[in-house]
Amino acid sequence: MTHSETDTQAHTAFVGGPIDPATGLGVWAGGHYEYENRQDLVDLNLSGNFALLGRTHEFLVGADWQRVKSNWLAATFTGHWSDPAYVLDGGDAWNPNHDVSDRHHTRYGPWGQEQIGGYAVLRLHPTDRLHVVAGARASRYKFEQRVTYKLAAADPWAVDSDLPFNVGTKITPYGGVIYDLTDNWSAYVSYAGIYKPQSLMLAGPPPGSGSLEPIKGKSYEGGFKGELLGGRLNATFSIFNVERTGTAMLDERYSESYDAWAGSCCYLLQGTVTSRGVDMEIGGELLPGWQAAVGYTYNQTRDEKAGNTFSTITPRHLLKLSTAYTLPGEWSRWKVGGSAHVQSKTLVSGSATINGVDQAYDFEESGYAVINAMVQYRLDPHWTLAININNLLDREYYETVGDTWSGNWYGAPRNAMLTLTWRH
User: Fold this and answer.
1) Most CB atoms within 10 A, among 41, 51, 99, 202?
2) C-alpha 165, offset from chain centre
3) Is 137 helix (H, G, I), strand (E, B) or coil?
4) pTM for the structure as a whole
């Protein structure tokens, strides 16, 4: 059983939205915010072994309950989304009047969700080489959100939206089969159902006529796992296919309205979206004192109805490398190593309104590689000193790209961490 409470009061200020390329101007935004959040969680399960047909099998059965209750109060400062901000030259100070008593107030609450579910899994071993896993989760979901507002402190509260959302009991199955081809290699296939509520995505017309139905789908995976070089290396190879329907997509008949707490409008249910690819990894001890690992993922996402790429911010190719070597002989207290993260390009296209004019934009981060390094020295059998240098070449790059409002994050510049570790 877990219970947690969070109470926060905050003044915030930030720059958001598109930047006018001619002047370098954006706009300031911010206000006063108060948050209350209460969460309760109970999870009860029973697991063990049982005998059937002369063989030992395993089971787990359980139930859980989760409740989240929240209230937010927000009031924006004078100049919110209107005071200019000189973004490209490092910005300027913004010191608005913090008295928000006569400003527009919005109250989100009661805002919360409640989930109750049961789950079970069986792990059967019909033979020494064949293993079967079968499980399912039954869940019930309830969501409520009420938004009220007033234009000034003396005004009465008025209802902006009140959109409760309930999902009856749904069962999500999963399972898999593993077969040991040899003592060192196994083949497997697996299946999992997908069921994901999206209560804060609202259908039109504005301000929202109700929450969209949950995302539904299924995931398949198959592959091989095994050992090489007498067990010094572990290797995996898998192919995967994920299909889902009902992902929220913008309804172009209406202007987009975004509110992280009250719900965003307006959206339609998208058709089938797929994610297909391969994933492979091999790692272990190549030679005494030399560890290495390499992993590669190819992932292609598609909107099957439109016939084009669904997520252009998901890299299609991702390569990860790492190695560490303990020096021989009298240098054996030293260990050196490094790693690399390499990925293909990501991009986002769209349009933004600047000075009343719609302008198209294309944000793209070409493929990049980030190199890291490590040196470690063992002081004695208990103490070890290590330095890790991340982004060794101080590469400037966008870790993710988004739109003109959010999601464009620089990767961390070169940085180092010195660590002293003691082990008994």
Assistant:
1) 202
2) 24
3) strand
4) 0.83
